[in-house]
Specification:
By secondary structure, the protein is an alpha+beta fold. It has three domains: 161 residues, Immunoglobulin-like, CATH 2.60.40.10; 221 residues, 7-stranded beta/alpha barrel (Alpha-Beta Barrel), CATH 3.20.110.20; 285 residues, Beta-galactosidase, Chain A, domain 5. It contains 14 helices and 40 strands. The protein has an eight-stranded antiparallel beta sheet, with no helix packed on it. It has a six-stranded mixed beta sheet with strand order 1-8-9-4-3-2. Helix 11 runs antiparallel to helix 13. It starts with 7 loop residues before the first helix and ends with a strand.
Length: 709
């Protein structure tokens, strides 16, 4: 077993023993004064040494009170020392050699020099620090460090001499940390798993966004969260009450939060990203990121994959900042991997001042999200001041590399050639209102590139929902009363039924005789009241159960609307006097009648016997995506109301049994890490911002849906 995997309590016992047994400490001492760039005296390149423990990287010198400290950085130290060190100090009085053997006490030659030293080895940060009384040696002096394989008198590595008062080296190692897929969530369950999930990492470990945010805050290391400003992500972070922490770190310059073109067309998606960020209190950015990796205009800089990930470039006046390329794990329980350390040293010694090291990547697939790996890696980077983590301001002034460093291509699988889609054409021609906003949000959700080909194919079955929302958006501009079943309003190739008044608009699908959507219009504009779960997310079920091409049945977890009992084609009869449509099931016995009146939408069930139906309530989702809001469930005479704590609510009145599950049911559980042994409420797995009511009866019943005024 690797000693670094020993439980922390046992390590602490071991460490105390090390301090009490000798003048050589083998553990990290409490950090009371951070080493700074001003303390750095020398950098040493990576050498071909027998072991990482004998490869010297840097020398430091500083005064601490009445003492003087000299620190040696090495490439990697084992818990049990497997190296010898020597430190030669030379001044006007002569030479002093401090020998630090792998086993035993340090020694000073000449012994009569009166120089008494204390040595602290820190294998976690891979440093060895020598401390002694400052007045015991005349200053200034020169320093030279050497490392040895135990038993050998030939140095494995040796630095040049450097003065104790020398200025720091001119160059440092520029480092950029950049992550994407930072918070791709559509349900409270996903939000908790992506924030601090149990067994959710690439190796089955605890993993999440919270760990890199905590690392950035604790160790003051900037990082770029490239796609955090997607409206669905910001709304979920607001729901979890962690946006204030993120906003504070952004204000400190520790988080770079680009505007995000998270779908096509990019300018429309960027508009929603900026509106959502503004609504949640985050400023617009000078940086941009496109999930399609298409070049965007009107920004100072864009994060994009380049052919050479070690240099910035430029195109059409925009700085192009490279993304990290595919790599082995970068963050480990021992700090940065050896490959990362070697890259950093190489960048520090590069004659090309436009060279930088870019780390990070796809967060759900990265070890950076693992606390046991992220924390020691952030700590290591922070404690090595020859590394320069870049801020947003740094990136805007960093030297550009070759202009031939071009973008390296796209990302993921698109659903279709979106530029020729009739749905996209309809979106561009739709009126400017809140329901068109919802249609765009659904379009982006369904057409965002994904590396999962099956998911891309699955989403095709649900594009019709964009058409439903556009039909409602057009009605809101010129409301009318009608009861028709003659139009293919959502461009899915089948006819749908429309039941409307000047204030309500219902779309009813003859397949199952289900209510797909319900909308309401008042002086404030149009509002959605009922909507299917596929408007917000697709693919929550086990991928083995997906059946692309089966329409509404392609994803078995989709709640395709209200009052859906099967997927068979129901016959319909329209009432001309009162706007009403009656649907009859294939058996000729079951009937549903939908009637619109000034009281709202009334639904009567006849001939069903024992039955259970769902009503998915989606109250003004566009408000949830664009600003902080709070939803609540209220008891009312004969039913319940769902909606904003301060604002619009939809009432459900029925003479049947009624139960509710809401996306808010597990909000109190989201303040801590995910608990795999906890039975979360069923609403935990619903899409944001959905509430699903279940109506159960053993005889005929009716349901009235209306806006509570």
């Amino acid at each position: 077993m690797h000693l670094r995997s020993i439980p922390s309590i046992l390590l602490r016992i071991l460490l105390v023993s090390c301090f009490t047994l000798s003048a050589v400490s083998c553990a990290p001492a409490p950090i009371q004064w951070n080493w700074t760039y001003a303390d750095l005296r020398l950098l040493d390149p990576v050498d071909n040494t027998p072991t990482p423990s004998t490869d010297i990287l840097a020398l430091y010198e500083r005064s601490i009170g009445s003492d003087l400290e000299i620190r040696i950085d090495l490439l990697d130290l084992a818990i049990i020392p497997d190296y010898d060190l020597s430190l030669r100090l030379t001044n006007s009085m002569g030479n002093y050699v401090i020998s630090i053997p792998a086993i035993g006490q340090p020694a000073v030659n000449p012994s009569q020099a009166g120089l008494q030293v204390r040595v602290v080895r820190d294998p976690w940060l891979d440093t060895v620090t020598v401390r002694f009384y400052r007045l015991a040696i005349i200053q200034p002096f020169t320093m030279q460090a050497a490392s040895f394989v135990p038993g050998s008198s030939t140095p494995a590595d040796e630095t040049v001499q450097v003065a104790s008062d020398a200025p720091p080296p001119v160059t440092r190692a520029p480092l950029l940390l950049a992550f994407w897929n930072t918070f791709p969530v559509t349900t409270p369950a996903q939000a908790l798993r992506r924030w601090d999930g149990a067994h959710s990492g690439p190796r089955g470990e605890r993993h999440g966004l919270s760990h890199i945010i905590e690392g950035s805050s604790r160790y003051q290391i900037p990082l770029a969260l490239l796609d955090l400003k997607i409206p669905a992500s910001l709304a979920a972070l607001n729901f979890m009450n962690v946006l204030p922490q993120i906003s504070a770190l952004a204000d400190q310059g520790l988080l770079i939060l680009p505007d995000v073109a998270y779908g096509e067309p990019g300018p429309v998606a960027l508009g929603f990203s900026r509106r959502s960020a503004q609504g949640f209190g985050l400023p617009a950015s000078q940086f941009v990121y496109s999930t399609n990796h298409d070049l965007q205009s009107h920004y100072l800089a864009q994060f994009i994959p380049l052919n050479d990930s070690t240099q910035l470039s430029r195109a059409t006046g925009t700085r192009l900042i490279p993304l990290p390329g595919p790599s082995d794990p970068q963050a480990t329980v021992d700090g940065p991997s050896l490959d990362v350390r070697q890259q950093l040293v190489g960048a520090a010694f590069s004659a090309d001042h436009s060279r930088l090291v870019v780390l990070g990547g796809d967060l759900p697939l990265s070890t950076w999200g693992n606390f046991d790996m992220a924390d020691p890696t952030f700590a290591w980077l922070a404690d090595h001041p020859w590394i320069h983590p870049l801020t947003g301001d740094d990136l805007l002034t960093f030297p550009l590399g070759t202009q031939s460093n071009l973008p390296s291509g796209g990302n993921g699988h698109s659903l279709m050639e979106t530029s020729n889609s009739p749905i996209l054409a309809a979106l561009h021609n739709a009126p400017d209102n809140l329901l068109t906003d919802l249609a765009w949000q659904t379009w982006f959700m369904l057409t965002t590139p994904t590396s999962e080909e099956n998911l891309a194919a699955l989403r095709l079955d649900y594009l019709y929902q964009v058409g439903d929302l556009l039909a409602a958006a057009n009605w809101a501009e010129a409301p009318s009363s009608q009861a028709k079943c003659s139009k293919n309003i959502n461009l899915d190739g089948r006819q749908e039924c429309v039941l409307s008044r000047l204030d309500y608009f219902a779309i009813i699908d003859p397949l199952g005789g289900r209510l797909s959507d319900l909308f309401y219009l008042d002086t404030n504009g149009p509002h959605q009241l009922v909507g299917p779960s596929n408007q917000f997310t697709i693919g929550l079920s086990d991928p083995s159960e997906w059946q692309p091409g089966l329409g509404d049945n392609a994803d078995p977890t989709v709640i395709s609307g209200a009052f859906s009992n099967d997927s068979a084609l129901w016959t319909f009869q329209i009432s001309g006097n009162t706007p009403a449509i009656t649907f009859a099931g294939p058996d000729g016995v079951r009937k549903k009648t939908f009637t619109l009146s000034e009281d709202g939408l009334n639904v009567i069930y006849e001939g069903f016997g024992a039955v259970s139906v769902a009503i998915p309530l989606a109250v003004d989702p566009q408000t949830y995506y664009l600003s902080p809001v709070k939803y609540s469930l209220f008891s009312i005479p004969g039913g319940v109301a769902w909606g904003f704590t301060d604002g619009l609510r939809v009432g459900i009145h029925t003479n049947a049994a009624l139960t509710a599950r809401n996306f808010t049911d597990s909000q109190s559980y989201l303040v801590g890490p995910e608990n795999p042994d906890l039975a979360y409420p069923t609403g935990h797995y619903l899409p944001f911002p959905l509430s699903v009511l279940k109506v159960q009866s053993i005889s005929d019943f009716n349901v009235l849906i209306n806006v509570m005024k």
